[in-house]
Amino acid sequence: MCLPLPFVLFLLIPCIPPAAASLSLLPYVQLDFAYFFKLAMCRSKCAQKYGAESEVQMLDGTKFVRMKLTSELHKCMNGCSPRKKAADEPSRSGMAFWNDSHSDSAKVGSSPASRIHVTCLNVRDGEAEGRLIVETSRQLHGEQFILQWKWQGGHWITASIENETVIPVDGFVSGNEYKFMITVVGANGRLGESLQSEWIKVPQEDRHSSPVDLSVSSSACAAGGVCAFLRWKRHPTDSCNYRINYRNSTMEIIRDITVDGSHFIHLSNLNFKTDYNVSIYALDGDFSRPLELAKSYFMTVSCSEVYGPGSIQCPPLPAESVGVVRLNSTQAFVSWMAPPNTSTILTYEISADVLPPCEKQPPTSVYANANNTSAKLPLPVDSKSCDILIKVVTFDLLGRDAFTERILHSSSQFLPPSISRYIPSIFYLIVPLTIALFIIILLVIILRLRSSWRNKSKSKKKSRAPPTFV
User: Fold this and answer.
1) What is the mean pLDDT of residues 260-272?
2) What is the Cα–Cα distance from 372 to 370, expressed in whole angstroms?
3) Is residue 179 within 8 Å of residue 275, measured between CB atoms?
4) CA–CA distance from 93 to each of 43, 49, 50, 53, 103 (Å)?
5) CATH number at residue 49
6) Which residues are the signal sequence here (predicted)?
7) Conformational region of residue 20, where left means phi above 0, alpha means psi within -120 to 50, and beta covers everything else
8) For position 429, what pLDDT does the model report?
9) Starting from the edge strand earliest in sequence, which strands make up the sheet with 275-283, in order?
């Protein structure tokens, strides 16, 4: 952005603005377009030679490359003037580029800009500030935008030279209509035709008080992990600033954002298969006075949906259907169902810990191989009349863990020794016996159906036999 100065001053001091400045709409200042065109062309030449590219991430998660203002680029741009002396090489390059530039030219290529529009407005006390968005069809490489504007009944006013696609603008007056135009200038001259925005009328007050329909979706991120995408319909005169509040059962994140032309908001670094509540608040120009616009609920996708079942990228899952039987005063039998991703399981740890009000005792534990689904667990000493917390911890190949807990109550009866002795054997027999019984029943059904089919076949043959005459 460039602060508007009288044309005479531009001949002496080129305008190199601070990066965070905004364009002020001053109807009584008219700058020379021909001079601006030559200055923009010179700056574009400087950017191609001295500019350094830096990556910027938009609110929707996409990234684009912008031109970084280095000290050499700053000196070269300062040299874009009819000077006769320069102290350093970048400044001398700027002087040479200035002499090689011209006031205007025929088109030398297509424009990277595809659309220009006002995306938001913050209105207060009859004035407003907003953001002007330049949409591009390809990456920029030092091109400059000559920005002009007018209001209803007025003529085009040349205001500044820009090199950003998001341009802060202030000085709007409530009740007036405004229109903007950009001319893209490259190192060799004009690129494409000038591009105009639609007319926009500045309201008398902020329009962000109306509730909106919020749409939320979750999917895998391109860079890995899980993301969510927030969408709601916005009007060009809606607020520029918003607060995004999203939370789950363990954490809450608050983000204050300013719109940048993105069509949705990208939330990253979310937990897998987790419930989230999200709220959207509109803020005024100084990020105060939050007003809730919408709230919604969503669940993120699971890790297996992103990386596939059993992937080592996913954290381990806890054991399921944990059962506990007290064998005697010093031992319990613990069984469980293995989680789905068994290929990544390293081992199980089964532990017992006495619960209050009983006196604290050292916990006991045993380990089981990855292919085991039961274990005998020694109980803490003198725990006969205590409730005991039984925990089954699953460790994966990377040392990560997940656990399931059950409480063994003091009221649980002991199994008779004659039965408890055979608990492990009975457990290992249940599954094969169930399968064998199922196969036997299936065979019986097949044999009966086959016998029934044969009987029907014989009866049909008898009915077809020719009559016998005596």
Assistant:
1) 92
2) 6
3) no
4) 11, 9, 10, 20, 19
5) 2.60.40.10
6) 1-21
7) alpha
8) 60
9) 252-258, 241-247, 275-283, 291-299
